[in-house]
Amino acid sequence: MTLEAWFAALADGGEVLEPLAARAWDDHDGQVRDRFGVHCLIGYQG
Q1: What are the boundaries of each domain within the chain?
Q2: What are phi and psi of 11, to 5 degrees?
Q3: 29: number of CA atoms within 13 Å, CB side?
Q4: Is residue 17 helix, strand or coil?
């Protein structure tokens, strides 16, 4: 499963707070609240 698919699965029935996106420091991250109300910050380098 790709990170994008994992992020989308967490957002299913929940809420995307900040979409996955490239950041100025050359990393990628996004935030999602899943259907249970758990807030997740998902990130990766590169």
Answers
A1: 3-45
A2: -75, -20
A3: 11
A4: strand
